[in-house]
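Q: Protein A?
A:
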Amino acid sequence: MLKKLIHHKKILVICISMLCAIAIFLSILFIPKAIKSATKPEGIFVPIIMYHSVCSDTDMLCDYVISPTELENDLKYLKENNYNTIFVKDLINFVHGGGSLPPNPIILTFDDGFYNNLSNALPILEKYDCKATISIVGSYTEKSDQSTDNSQRYSYVTSEQVMQLHNSGIIELGNHSFDMHNLDTRRGAGVMKNESYEEYRNALINDITKNQEYLSENCNIVPAIYTYPYGIVSDPSKRIVKACGFLASLGVEEKPNYISSDPDCLYQLYRYNRPHGTSTEKFMEKALKG
């Protein structure tokens, strides 16, 4: 009787061990997938690349200045891998219910309004039939209007050249502030030390409005996109930018974007800065990873 009891206990232990092993196997097989599914961001993955200056002078190349060859390699890579460039306004139309997005959408942006965006970048964009968003600093363009210098090293587009970019059909324009693109007393569009909310609100609204009016009067363009200078965002600025009528804004954090039906997903859109000296393949591996 004792032997029979011990035998039954051994069988019970073996059965329990087998059940535990099966449970562990099933947890390994299925639970991570469930967790992955539960935490996967909702929406359409839309990577955004941030360019600045495109200059052929090798002594100018740095984290914010790339060569025309590097830009061409990027666009060629995107075409070969079936990516479709879109405007930010296409995201706006999609979110607000009036449009659709193509397969593998991607947005190319250029900040500051360098003259070389017209002289060097635009012909390459046209060659590969790629769209781009260029954000203009009004005070830079105003100064260029008073000059006849067109240097690929340091010049910015004039009002006439802004219209030339717009009339190409593959460029949309954004508001990059009128005169807040600096890191002096005020850092970008940030709040200054000891500045009241009312003072800050008036300063930001006045700057935004001045650039909107300048671009409207001189270029016949009213941007729906606000691009934060240096990507410096504050809680008040988020509310003010929306109150000024912008339907999207661009930041500088290097993260993937997932576009859903929620209009809030259009603000502080993430972007990957394209530096000089990194191969197209290596850069795209980071920027296109959802």
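Q: Protein B?
A:
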Amino acid sequence: MKQFKSGQYISQGYYKSFQPTFINRQWNVDSMEVLQLLSQADRELGRLDMYSNYIPNIDLFISMHVLKEATQSSKIEGTQTNMDEALLDREDIPPDKRDDWEEVQNYTKAMESAVLALKKLPFSSRLIRETHRVLLQGVRGEKKQPGEFRNSQNWIGGATLNDALFIPPVHTSLPDLMSDIEKFLHNEEIFFPELLKIALVHYQFETIHPFLDGNGRVGRLLIPLYLVDKGILKKPILYLSDFMESHRTLYYENLMNVREKNDIIQWFKFFLVGIIETAKNGISTFDGIMQLQKQNDLKIQSLGSRAANAKKVTNYLYQRPVINVEKVSEIAGISMPSAYKLISELERLEILREFTGGQRSRMYSFDNYLKLFR
């Protein structure tokens, strides 16, 4: 990759846009440090993927991973919704926070719809546009061409083109650039490690910035989607937004260093470290979930005749760890007075914790479970 050329700035009259070079070609990596990190990343992903086999009802836990990813990825873009708020219903969110809340919900919907779409669509521009459409539907970016590549110039940072930090390529070059990405992803004549392939594609996608809004979120969604599409992971259980949010400055600096200095090697190293750390954290979270399940199952056994209903409620809580008495009544199929008694028992066992502090409209959280994701 020593000969890597990211592209060049092209005068557009009163500003210069960056025109990236095509990536659909054979690449050779001669950095031993990158190869060593690649080997470690492959091992950690293999360990993480094993949990797809060992954890019963893993889809319950994936929904929490997706929600965490949604809050962290949206946070990078400036939204302020946290995980606890994201779990609440819209009417329980203060009006001034609902826009942020809705963007997080859309991210979750976009991820879930994209995973389903992979079963009938190839990993393609069409899939990317459809994911973008879901992401921006009914939120602040809904007037910025949801599901369509832009037909005007955009920029990153600054109030106008004149003080922008970075200006992506002109919109007329988008069809060729996105087609190049698609060809690269499906070119079976190119032998290149899959993790480096998606690292390069993520960089290229963010550099092209093909949408008027939502590029960062879509670009980060591409990573787990690609890993699932290639069979590297059976389920979408690895998300890098938490790592990128924690190292936000480095993330942006490394992307800019590729454009300004052709330093793709440093970007690869950053990306692979992110894969390694995120996979390790995922393994730790799943270990914690399995231990928590065992502990709670033992606690629930002490409830005698209420144990079966308590089990129904806790099974629900693994997917959505915030609940009220009406929901407990519905899930367990019991009266409201019985639901209150069951909640009281689950509080005593420290499975549920009341967090609103009011006498009415009380909400309860599966706190020890939430801590594993916070």
